[in-house]
Amino acid sequence: MLSNILIKKFIPKSADSQKARTAYTTLSSVTGIICNVLLFIMKLAAGMLSGSVSIVSDAFNNLSDCASCIVALLGGYLAAKPADKAHPFGHGRIEYLAAMTIAVFIMLVGFELLTDSVSKIINPVPLEFSLPALIVLIVSILIKLWMSFFSTKLGKLADSAVILAAAKDSRNDIIATSAAAVSLIVSPFTNFPIDGFAGIIVSLFILKCGFDIIRDTADDLLGKPADYKIVKHIKDIILAHEKIINVHDLIIHNYGPSHIMGSCHVEINGEESFRAVHELVDHIEKRIFEDTNINMTIHMDPVDPNCEETIKCREFISALLSGLDKSLSFHDLRLTEKPDGKEISFDLVVPFECVYKNEQLRSIIAEELYHLDSKYSLSVTFDCQMTNTD
Fold it and tell me: Which of 8, 165, 276, 316 has most Cβ atoms within 10 angstroms of its Cβ?
């Protein structure tokens, strides 16, 4: 209920995608700063009352979360900057750097909590049960639970890595505070340093979460395969037109969630009017942008779909590759006249998990083509798999 009220009040309906994403980041960050400052004050008081290192550490964890919110706020603002001479594809990837910075903060808190927890085990200090402290922790859990749901909702609506990182941080706080609450409840019944051991478990969980965010963000920065569902949708749009025979070499370049570019090759009948096909391709590029917000550049490959010899060679290559590895695929097959025969050229897509090396495949295909007809020579270009298959 509260989440919907805040979204309706602070997210402009008429804003473009980038302005809306900036508004989502601002709302998430400001809400996080306010809540975390309140939680820091509450938990610090509760920790001093009970003498619990895990509660005090959790309080300073909330203070560090404020720094994370400021980083997210700054990252969202910088990511929204338009393209310039030095950065012609925009500044969208700054958002990934902001998410990675938040992950570093998370891991620093995890290391600090781990150190304090080990010290607590080596030099145990008895906890004093405090009902007000327990109430503070329960209230803190409820606030962080709401913050986690709220940030997750905003992160999905905005497709924002930095907001989703903040949501994960809130989930970490729920676990850390729950462990502190359990330690406080059990403390009157045992002298065992449960506070320290609970702190170790929580710190390891926090460290893992920080590592996961860094790993996922690094994938976005380094470049990862395009999502299968997006690729399928783009191919469906392209292949819906009867003049398009096939589509291949589809690549998606991610310069930030709102700055995505793509390219692909489409096969068309070489006898079609160039002007007509160009107008069709231009129409398809605009339709893809309207549906996916991806700036797509389409290259046209003229082929001869009615040539009997080409059809025969295509069927032969298809059967040969299927017998070697069903995950192999090829495209853009052409026959070219040479002084001593004909050259068969095509692009071969080799998945990373294929057991055959490129040169092995080249040798096998060339030998089989020679056996089919000695006039054939081979020219093959190897492509790697550019998209996820699931």
Answer: 165
pLDDT of 277-309, one tens digit each? 889 999 999 999 988 888 899 988 887 777 888
CA torsion 64→103→176→114, rounded to 10°?
-90
Residues 311 and 199 in one domain: no
Tokens coding 31: 């809400």
Do residues 311 and 298 share a domain? no
Secondary-structure percent of the chain, ordered helix, strand, coil, rounded to 5: 65, 15, 20
98 shares its domain with 143: yes
Q: What is the pLDDT of residue 390?
A: 47
Expressed as residue numbers, the domain containing 313 is: 307-390
Q: Give kind and range of the element (H or E) at residue 348.
A: strand 341-350
Q: How many CB atoms lie within 10 A of CB 319?
A: 10
Q: What is the DSSP string of 91-109?
A: STTHHHHHHHHHHHHHHHH
**Over the stretch 214-261, which tens digit does the pLDDT of each residue have?**
887 887 777 777 777 888 899 999 999 888 888 888 888 877 766 788
SS3 271: coil
Rounded to whole angstroms, what are the CA distances from 33 to 26, 37, 110, 139, 312?
Answer: 11, 6, 20, 17, 67
Let me know whether 332 and 284 are in one domain.
no
CA distance 140 to 142: 5
Cα–Cα distance measured from residue 36 to residue 71, given in angstroms and rounded to the nearest whole number: 14
- The answer on pLDDT for 14 being more than 60 is no
Task: Identify whether residues 53 and 159 lie together within a single domain.
Answer: yes
Are residues 14 and 140 both part of a single domain? yes
Residue pLDDT, tens place only, 322-369: 999 988 888 888 888 888 888 888 889 888 888 889 999 999 999 998
Rg value, the chain, Cα: 29
In the chain the first and final C-alpha atoms are separated, in Å, by 35
Task: Assign 165 a pLDDT band (cuts: 50, 70, 90).
Answer: confident
| Number of domains composing the chain | 3
Q: Nearest CA to 144 among 10, 9, 40, 24? A: 40
Residue 36: CB atoms within 10 A of its CB come to 26
289: amino acid identity, one letter: F
